[in-house]
Amino acid sequence: MMKNRIISGALKIFFFVALIVILDQTIGYVLRVLYFNQKEGQDHSLIHSIKDSKEDVLIIGASQAQNNYDPRIISSALNMSCYNAGLDGGHSIIMQYAQIKIITERYIPKVIILEFNPENIVHYKGDYDRLSILLPYYKDYPEIRPFIYLKGPYEQVKLLSAIYPFNSNIISMIVYNTNSYAGRKRDIQGYVSKKEVLNKSMIGTQIEKKTEGVVDPNMVSALRNIIQICKEKNISLYIVSSPLFNEINEKQGPPSSAASLAMEIISTNKVHFLDFSYDTTFLGHMELFYDLKHLNEKGATIFSKKLSTLLIKNGN
C-alpha cells in the first residue's frame, strides 16, 4: 500500500514537471517566433544588425549613436550603403563588442563608426543587467554566450527555460507584431530622430555631478578587442564622440584617468578618433539638442554632414 502511494506520488510529480517543461518550451517557441518576426522597433534594429545586415557602413553604439547619426546623409556622401545599429538603453561598450564580434563573423563591413566617449570604460550600476538584450540570441549564437554569462552566475540555469530569454520583450513583441505600432515613430535605417528642442529649464534639471568612476577591466578588454577585430578583418574603424551640450564659455576639463587610458589604447593602435564633444558648431546651441547628450533632428543633420566630410577626407 505504502509502495503504491510512493509510486503514485512520484508519477504525479513527474507528470507535473513534464507539463511545466512542455508549456515552457511551447510558449518559448511562440515567443521566439514573435520576437524574430518584429518589423519595427529597437529589437528589430538589433535583429537586422546581427542576422541580416550587409551594409558597407555600420554605426554602432548606444542611444547617442541611434539618435545622432543619420545614415541617409552618410550613405549619400560616401556613396556606400549605411545602417544605424545604435541601441537605446545606456548599453556599455561590452554590448558594442558583442555586436561587432557576431556581425563580423557573418560578413565584413567596410567601415564601422563606433560612438564612444572615452570616459565610458568605467562601471555603472546596471551595465551587466542590460546585456539581457542578447538573451534571445543565446540558443543560436554560441559566441555570444560569454557576454551573457557576465550578467550573473546563474544565467546558464535560467536559460534552461525557453521563456526566460523573452520575458522582458513581451510588450514590444505584441506591439510590433500587430497593428499597434501604426502611427508610432519609425526608425529610418535604424536611425531614430528627435523633434524636441532642449530648453533652459531642462539644462538645470539635467546637470550631472561628475565623479571619477572605477575602470572596468571587461570594458577595457572590449575596446581592445573591437580594435583588434577591425585590424584583423581590414575594417576601417572610426571611434567618434558625438556632440554634448555645453555653453559657449564652457571649457573642456582635463580627462579622467579612465579617459586617459582609453585614449592611450586608441592612440597606440593608431585608430581614427573624432571628438565632437566640444565642437564649436554646437556650443551653446540649444536648438540643435534634444537633451544634454542627444542631438535633435536638426542637430543630427548638421553633425552627420560634418562627420561625412571628415570620413571622406580620411579616404572613405
In words, what does this structure look like?
It is a single chain. The chain is elongated, with a radius of gyration of 22 Å. It is an alpha/beta fold and 316 residues long. The longest helix has 35 residues, at 2-36. A 5-stranded parallel β-sheet has the order 2-1-3-4-5, with helices on both faces. The protein contains 12 helices and 5 strands. The protein has a single domain (2-313), classed as SGNH hydrolase (Rossmann fold), CATH 3.40.50.
Produce a short descriptive summary.
The chain is of the alpha/beta class and 316 residues long.
Give structural attributes.
316 residues; Rossmann fold; 5 strands; alpha/beta; five-stranded parallel sheet; 12 helices
What is the topological layout?
Blueprint (H helix, E strand, L loop, with lengths): L1 H35 L4 H12 L4 E4 L2 H6 L2 H8 L3 E3 L8 H12 L6 E5 L29 H5 L5 H4 L11 H6 L24 H7 L10 H16 L3 E6 L15 H12 L3 E4 L21 H17 L3
Parallel strand pairs: 1-2, 1-3, 3-4, 4-5
CATH topology: Rossmann fold
* Terminal residue distance: 82 Å
Count of the separate structural domains: 1
**What is the makeup of the main sheet?**
5 strands, parallel
CATH superfamily: SGNH hydrolase
**Rg of Cα set:** 22 Å
Q: What strand order characterises the main sheet?
A: 2-1-3-4-5
Mean pLDDT, to the nearest integer, reads: 89
The helix-and-strand class reads alpha/beta
